[in-house]
Amino acid sequence: MHNSHYSGLTHRKQFGMTFIEVLVALVILVTGILGAVAMQATAKQGSFDAMQRSLASSLTQDIIERMRTNDATASATNVLSSYAGTGYGTKNLAAPSIRCDAIGSLCTSAQRVANDLYEWEQTLKGSDVKSSDASNVGGLTGAQGCITIVNNSATVAISWQGRTATSDGAANNAIMKCGTSGSKRRQILIQAFIF
After folding, report:
1. Listed residue (122, 179, 138, 127) closest to 156, CA to CA
2. How confident is the model at residue 184 (pLDDT cuts 50, 70, 90)?
3. What is the pLDDT of residues 151-163, one digit of tens each?
4. What are phi and psi for residue 185, nearest 5 degrees?
């Protein structure tokens, strides 16, 4: 039986891909690669922000431990109140004339306060890690430290600049606002009793 409807068509098998199929495959491949690159950039940024927060927490604990180890025998409140201040990291404190970093060096409590604050500020600024052009690269970005003392209670705050704009890290903080306000400000605050 011969069907006249199909008589003019010849059946061929198709081999390979058409040009449109190749273009669709390329679009899908490029989209996947761009998504992977964007995910990597976001992960790197999150890692940097986490490292900054970890460093700020460590620096906050550092100054609290320095306060605790200072000899605060007879005048505990006076020695402790000597640590109070704002803007550490931007003050450019001069190195104390008497350094308390040699073995067997005896320093008074006041001399230890001066050394502690100088060393803490240098660490905030990242002066312990230098680039090839001798600029500081090891600290927090735009770091500022603030210390308040009320009797034996110490409140230490460190603020720094994050990489992306979010809400101000200290805008709603009723205890202490440290650093320059703005949508990139991050802040960590720790309170401790020093005895």
Report:
1. 179
2. confident
3. 889 999 999 988 8
4. -70, 130
